[in-house]
Structures are given as C-alpha cells and as structure tokens.
Amino acid sequence: MKKLVLLFGALGTSMTKTAASLKKLPPPTFPGGQAFATKVESAFGTAGPAISEQARKIAADPSTLTSSVGGMTDSMTQAVAPLEELGSLKLTPATENAIENLPACAKVKSLSGG
Questions:
Q1: What sign for the dihedral angle of Cα 93, 99, 103, 106?
Q2: pLDDT of residue 111
Q3: Cys bridge to 27: 33, 57, 77, 88, which one at CB 3.0-4.6 A?
Q4: Domain locations in the chain?
C-alpha cells in the first residue's frame, strides 16, 4: 500500500510541477497553440493537486483505496484529454522526424519497438 501511495503522490506532484513549468514557457507555434497550452496547463494544474490529495487520503485511511482510485482515474482522464487533440495536428514529415529524434522521444520510440 505504501508504494502505491508513493506512486500516486509522485504522479500528482509531477503533474503539478509540469503545469507550473509550462506556464513559464511560450505557447506552441502551431495554429491554436495558445489555446492548447492553456488547456494543458489548466488540466495538469487541476489534476495534480487532486491526485496528490487522493494519495494523502489513502495514506491516512487505507480503506478509502477503492473510492480514491476512482477519483484519481477521473483526474487522470481530465488531465490527458487536451493531449488527445494532438492527434488532429497536421505535421510535416520533417517536423515529425525532428520530434521523433529528440532524445526523450527517441527513447520512447525505441522502447515501443519503433
């Protein structure tokens, strides 16, 4: 149970920090980039603290695990919703290649068998 609480706590903290970091960056330059950035910052900024709170509830009372996981699932679904919009972006092959060759993206691609 303790490892699960640590995992969820780390996830919440990471999302909260990511939202704060994104606010300091300029928005993406693709059409609708400003709106997209605002949605992602808001989603992560809301979900992070909510997930952290659920982790604290589980730590304080392990019997809340089932209800807390349901709340975390809802928070995570809301957090990733803006990211689904990326699938509709029309990127040039050169841009796709550049993204895929970023060190972090290249590692994910290799781990996924690509």
A1: negative
A2: 67
A3: 33
A4: 2-89
